[in-house]
Amino acid sequence: MPDTTNHPRRRVLQVAAAAAASLALPLRAQSGFPSGPLRIIVGVPAGGAADVGMRALAAVLEKNLKQTVIVENRTGGGFMIAWQALQAAPADGHTLMHTTNSFAALHAVQKQFDMEKQVAHISVTSTSPIALIVNGDSPFKTLGEMAAYGRANPDKLSYGTTGVGTAEHLKLTQFERIAGFKGLAVPFRGGPDAVQALMSGTVSFLMAPGFFAKQFAPSGKVKVLAMMDGVRWKDMPNVPTFAEAGVNLPPMTYWSGLVARAGVPPEIVQHLHREVSAAALDPSVLEKMVASGQNAVVSKSPDDFRQFIMSEIAWMTEAAKGLDLKS
Fold first, then answer.
1. What's the CA gap between 117 and 107, in Å, rounded?
2. Angle at 291 between CA 276 and CA 284, to 5 degrees
3. Helices 167-179 and 143-152, interaxial angle, to 10°?
4. What does DSSP say about strands 130-135 and 205-209: parallel, antiparallel, or unpaired?
5. What domain range includes position 153?
6. Percentage helix, strand, coil, to 5, in the chain?
7. How many domains does the chain have?
8. Which residues make Cβ contacts (< 8 Å) with residue 281, sequence separation at least 6?
């Protein structure tokens, strides 16, 4: 399984400042593009962090491209309704789809579509740090203590996920294997439900966006045992990474990005990459991102985004081996 901290990941997830430098080149409009409104299909409900970020980005794209940019929430079917809407659209670059870790996990687990061959990769647009949290009254003070308890007490630890075969489920399966314990995965409809279940004592731990950790840790409702990124989170500098806590788990962040249908002409893909990158780093978008716990991040190129997605799918495919993913 490839190390997700390897060279492709580092090239793709560049810090905003470095990416901004590459955007000093003029944004040369492609002949005749865009020739009409653009549509961004989002497979999650309106009002969430991903939707808020996409709407902020769409507003800047609309201003810069001088064309209407519509954010269209097409929920249901485990992202498949959004996927079908993208595939039904012309391959002309006027229809984009918001994609995430969760969508990459569907490729890895269900194999009903191909994120390498069936899309034109545009850019990652944001990342969010991930925390491993426990109930505020949990006896565990460190990740090592919790893992040791799990090894000594098989099936006594339980953890929340947003569904069987999701990115969270697959990453926590990796954690179990590397730390040497077996727990019980409990699926929930979404992150907020899982956090509430943790605070009520229904599950032992879960991985959650740093935004939730920052919201509930100060009041003592949750404790943050480790961050899943490769570096400490600036908002919680005293919380160790997994590696610092003694568990050599490949890092992970939540990420969002944009793709189009395969077949979009390369010059339009490059133009979209430049425009999306510029919009993602616009001050108005940065403000919305920070407020919802996200970091604005862009890919160096469409191919770097493709390489990153395929590295994500590689570890997810490996993590899914041997799991019962039918329930």
1. 12
2. 40
3. 70
4. antiparallel
5. 130-227
6. 40, 20, 40
7. 2
8. 16, 19, 20, 23, 296, 298
For residue 82, how far is the Cα from the chain centroid? 17
β-pair type (38-42, 69-73): parallel
Q: Which residue, 145, 202, 146, 199, is CA-closest to 172? A: 146
Q: Is the pLDDT of residue 11 over 50?
A: no
Does the residue 31 lie in any domain? yes
> CA 177 to CA 320: how far, in whole Å?
12
Report the distance separating Cα 108 and Cα 165, nearest Å: 9
In a shared domain, residues 15 and 81: yes
- Residue 98 in this model has a pLDDT that exceeds 50: yes
Indicate which CATH number applies to the domain containing 218.
3.40.190.10
Length of the chain as a residue count: 327
Tokens of 22: 């590459």
**What pTM was estimated for this model as a whole?**
0.85
Number of helical (H) and strand (E) elements in the chain, helices listed first: 12, 11
Shared-domain flag, residues 114 and 159: no
Two structure tokens written together for 194: 């899982």
127 phi and psi, to 5 degrees?
-135, 160
Tens of pLDDT, residue by residue over 285-298, are: 999 998 888 898 99
- Within-domain flag for 326: no
Beta bridge partners of 256: 100, 126
Taking only Cα atoms into account, the Rg of the chain, rounded to an integer number of angstroms, comes to 20
